[in-house]
Amino acid sequence: MKTFYAGGSLGDAYVILCKVYRIAQEEPILLKHYTENESLKSSILEIYSLVSGIGVEFRDDKKPFGITGQFIHHKLAGKRMTYLPDDDGYGLELECHPDFNIRSEDRFDLPAHYVTMQLESGANPKKLRHLGTQEIEKIINKSELPVVVLGKDNVDFTQSNGTIDLRGQTNIKEMVKIIRDGYHFYGCLGLLSLVALSQRVHSTLYKPLYLKDKHAFESRVQPVAEWKRYVTQ
């Protein structure tokens, strides 16, 4: 069985999944994944389970660090960001639009047409990305379709105009299906926005709050033309 070394948080794991998708369709593989955040392990397993034939083992040492959730590696030295060519060393070809063959029934009885929104993203509590109150209200009030809210339920907002709040009620597979079947996605850079772009869902991604977020966008979304074409900011 071919073994690949990888690492990162949820968004990284999803990009890595897209990188190994094609080879996993041909033969079983093993991903040895490193993460500093113990609480993310169950969600990372859920992400990799979207494709059958992928075995996962968690490791304590981040070296070797073969596959990353980026397409341009970079290192921060002082205030300068140095970009290095991406080279996973495995010769993998990215699948920009993976088909996860999710056919589960909709236990939430959602309307036929809707848009999705994530209020907050990020695994680091000190650097969470979130939509502002005015942005949230504007999305809800101007939407001609019901807004289905996904993700964490840490942000308070006023429900109106047919809003459907599913925060904390869905697993990752259900969120992938709901986003894929939606008309549009609103949110910040993170796992769910990467899901939306890879499933050909036009997405409004709001301005990153931190310098590293800006570079995260430039190293994850911007290099992939097939994802960038679905982004509106």
The Rg value, from CA coordinates, equals 18 Å
Instruction: Compute the number of strand runs.
Output: 13
Strand order of the largest sheet: 10-9-6-11-12-13
Overall helicity: 25-40%
Order of helices and strands: EHEHEEEEEEHEEHEHEHHE
Class computed from helices, strands and strand pairing: alpha/beta
Shape: globular
Number of domains: 2
Explain how this protein is built.
- The chain is an alpha/beta fold.
- It folds into two domains: 2-85; 115-232.
- It is 29% helix and 22% strand.
- The chain has seven helices and 13 strands.
- The chain has helices at 10-26, 41-48, 133-142, 172-181, 191-198, 211-220, 225-228, and strands at residues 2-7, 29-34, 54-59, 72-77, 80-85, 115-118, 120-121, 129-130, 147-150, 164-165, 185-187, 203-205, 231-232.
- The strands form four sheets. Strands 10-9-6-11-12-13 form a six-stranded parallel β-sheet, with helices on one face. Strands 1-2-3 form a three-stranded parallel β-sheet, with helices on one face. The chain has a two-stranded antiparallel sheet with strand order 4-5.
- Strand 1, helix 1 and strand 2 (29-34) form a beta-alpha-beta unit.
- Helix 1 (10-26) packs parallel to helix 5 (191-198).
- The longest helix is centred in the first third of the chain and has 17 residues, at 10-26.
- The chain starts with a strand and ends with a strand.
